[in-house]
Amino acid sequence: MDTPIAAPAALRARYAPLAWFAGAFLTIEFLTRLALLVKTGSGVPLDPRYWLYAFGVGLGYDLVAFIYVAWPLVLFLWLVPRRVFATRPLRAALALLLLAMLYGLLFVTAAEWLFWDEFASRFNFIAVDYLVYSREVIGNIRASYPVGKVLAALALLAGLVLYLTRRQWRPREDASRLRQRSGVTLAWLLLTIVVSYAVDGEYKNATANEYVNELSGNGVYEFFSAYRNNELDWRRFYRTLPDGAAFQRTRELLKTPEAEFVGDDPRSITREIRNPGPEKRLNVILVSVESLSADYLTAFGGTKNVTPNLDALASKSLFFTNLYASGTRTVRGLEALSLSVPPTPGQSIVKRPDNENLFSLGSVFGGKGYDSMFVYGGYGYFDNMNYFFSHNGYRTVDRSDIPRDQVHHGNIWGVADEDLFTLALREADRAAAAGQPFFEHVMTTSNHPPFTYPADRIDLPSGKAGRAGAVKYTDWALGDFLARAASKPWFDDTVFVITADHCSSSWGRSAIPMNRYHIPLLIYSPKHVEPGRVDRLMAQIDIPPTLLGLLDFSYTSQFYGYDLFKLEPGRERVLLGNYQKAGYLRGDVLTVLAPKKHATQTLPKFDNSGDATPLDAPQPELVDDAIAYYETASERFSEGLMRIPAQVTPPAKAAPN
């Protein structure tokens, strides 16, 4: 029988490798957090309270993550019999296990550094998506970084640490019994269950500085938390209004002079939009440019001269200067530009199941006899784009439709933008030759890491000038596209709409930094659209109804967006968010709804600081407006209320031969 003294001593000998791994894990996490803090720079003020919070709360999340990560070692130490524990083969097996676990930690650290570099965030649902589309992500990383050297360096570092600390983890003779070890494993299991239910990733978000909140997390924990919460049920996680109140309030918010509700169903937002005058059956080419932040343009303070063509085009276009993107990813921009719905938390509707036959901009054009197309420079299976568009009133055309000998340049994300625009021109020519008006939604890819493009197009080297080079190349490609389009017989009767899917970076000090959502919009048609400047506040979901209004289309609508030119002054608002937070900007007040049924209100700054000042006097009516928008959008999708009758939606057409 074990004595009370012998049992702990035996367990200490047995579990020395676990103690060693705990020290290694916490040291690596501390250094990772310190490195990310330094990288953030002025984003975290020189305030010891912020540092103590980040490292103190971060230690708590590190310990929780360690409980999960250590399970392979806990099982190993539990099951290995005493008689072989200190033998040479067992020592080699343990060394391999520890080497693999240590290498995994260092690999995650390197991945977190790269992820922070792009998103200024610990792992979130974007990282989960990246696992799904590993081909594109791995290809991007291989093109952007010396992957082989990095992996070799990590392996060398892991081996060196393991060798130098071998006295701490090396197995020794122990007198532990299976019963004792089973008690440890059972306790570990109970601890895992407790922290799984008691700890939530939202607990850390208690400061007004989002960088500090992110630093307080743990990358491993945040990854699995994001995987578990990839889709968020509004009623479970967010504030709601009493039954019926959300729809009643939304209907009031959607009333506009040119719209009349259809029927008396209190849960319907279907309206008849009636515009005066004959409909302008003009062709439309809508270009959503990857990561085109407004501040690249000189009109918004850009000083790098990377958008000379867009800068010149702004004076010839209807130029909207106060537009804000719905979200921080391409699928959010596509959702806004096709469905005109608020960015409900979790995944974009583009990627959710049961997203077929929804009311869309493509279905409106299709109902008018247009050939509606989604034209993409990459492979449209990525982010579920082809499936979504082909089941919602568009036909899809992508990289697979471009002959290889017509590609000037391509990378893992897609062909060069000039080749994408050649594809768009080809499809426009085919529709025009068939005597059919066309609507093309063209999505670019060149302004994306690894930022490569054909040589000799601009004065910045491909892949070496970073995003500045990619932006300047995309600007060149847009200028070249419009010049080529001008020679086409259909040019005079075409409206070109140029905007962005989202900004090039998305994180700041506040929960929703407004400067990270500011995007441009240019509507250009020399024969039909008078140039001018529009400074009114505008949401990305307002683009579809505003465009249709410019064409004087009358149609049945389920859009949440406004036709900005029909909307009474003072009613402008913006709906925007990230994967968990839902924002509503009205006037100078930003209301943010978050999980755990939280709601905050701030006075955001629109400069590069990304700061926001807490609102002194709460405005509950704005909170209720925000809830109404997001609650009804969530319910309408989950209950199938966004669908339109199958016979109303023109079937997606096969691409012409």
TrEMBL record:
Keyword Transmembrane helix: yes
Membrane topology, as annotated: Multi-pass membrane protein
Keyword Cell membrane found: yes
GO molecular function: transferase activity
InterPro entries the UniProt entry points to: Alkaline_phosphatase_core_sf, OpgB/LTA_synthase_biosynth, Sulfatase_N
One Gene Ontology CC term in the entry: plasma membrane
Pfam families: Sulfatase
Keywords of the record: Cell membrane, Membrane, Transferase, Transmembrane, Transmembrane helix
Location of the Sulfatase N-terminal domain: 283-552
Residue spans crossing the bilayer: 18-38, 50-80, 92-116, 143-163, 183-199
Localization (cell): Cell membrane
Record's protein name: Phosphoglycerol transferase MdoB-like AlkP superfamily enzyme
Species the sequence originates in: Dokdonella fugitiva
Lineage of source species: Bacteria, Pseudomonadati, Pseudomonadota, Gammaproteobacteria, Lysobacterales
